[in-house]
Amino acid sequence: MSAQHARLRVFSGVQPTGKLHLGNYVGALDVWVGGQDQHDNVFCIVDLHALTIPEAVRPDDLRSKVREVAGLYVACGIDPAASAIFVQSRVSAHAELAWILNCVTPLGWLERMTQYKAKSAGTERVGTGLLDYPVLQAADILLYDTNRVPVGEDQRQHMELARDIARRFNHLFGETFVIPDAMIRPSGARLMGLDDPTIKMSKSIGAQRAGHAIGLLDPPDVIQRTIMGAVTDPHRETRFDHAGLGVLNLLVIYEALSGEARPAIEARFEGQGYGYLKRTLAEVVVERLTPIQRRYAEIVSNLGEIDHILEEGAERVRPRAEATMDRVRRLTGLAERPSA
Ligand code: TYM
After folding, report:
1. What is the pLDDT of residues 287-308, one digit of tens each?
2. Which CATH architecture is the domain 3-185+302-332 placed in?
3. In sequence order, which residues have a C-beta less than 8 Å from that of residue 24 and are 6 or more positions away?
4. Is 15 in the pocket of ligand 1 (CB under 6 A)?
């Protein structure tokens, strides 16, 4: 086996909507960067997924959001030389495979998805795309013979579905797809809202409500204000196993960014009061995000370079996607490319 094949293939993506936040960084981007050197990486900006709530789409905003997310990938440490970075809609095989996977996906599997239920609740006219969202996600992953998918906890159910779809297709048509595994960090895979620690930190809420999320591009004073205003409780409990939800969230963020072990963290904050915990955490967050923001400012000063990275990434991944599609066409009886 060649060295290239010995590397595990990693695929993941971010939807270019709302305001990228610390949850996206800790749950996803930081994990991607951490494994970058060991893996064969494909990182996507999933603009087709952004269309699933068409009422929220402003075409110019979507295009600039795609560049913003690409800039943040690079600023956070994704190296375009080591990892392919591309926009989903530039590789048409994603939509094509999604259609084919639709045909093997029972409707009941999609209706069970909690994210669909949450997003469609109270909405009068739900687009078919919203229901179909996880099938497109499965297509994203399965196109590249992906072994590992580093995501936050909220994507666990979509990952199970992707595995089920792959197995069902393989069963119906013969071995075609690699069964991918989710890569979910044991702690920090679900950061909660700072203004409401009973709900997960979310891009859409973060774009509407100050105090909910720490944006990756928030200036230091905003970061400090958001953390100092975080909801806690009337106790002085800073042990992981006993803390209330709000304090636990702060401790988990501290743990993820500092890399310190839990006993050391508990010793550091024991009996100190929440003000000290918040001030210390704010320092750690600002220290981590400042260099990222500096790199981001440099990168977006040259939009042509971002467009080049994205186009080059799409060119790199397209032949791999096409190779999978050739297999799918052959096994299903769909028309094959003359050269295939
Ligand atoms: P998206 O754009 O909502 O989120 C991007 C990544 O951030 C993680 N995440 C979090 N992690 C920790 N705490 C949080 N509060 C938090 N909020 C979000 C998400 O789990 C995700 O890893 N459906 C995906 C995009 C997608 C995708 C894919 C991902 C489309 N196709 C294929 C992996 C593979 C999404 O909307 O992520």
Report:
1. 999 999 999 999 999 999 999 9
2. 3-Layer(aba) Sandwich (3.40)
3. 14, 152, 203, 216
4. yes
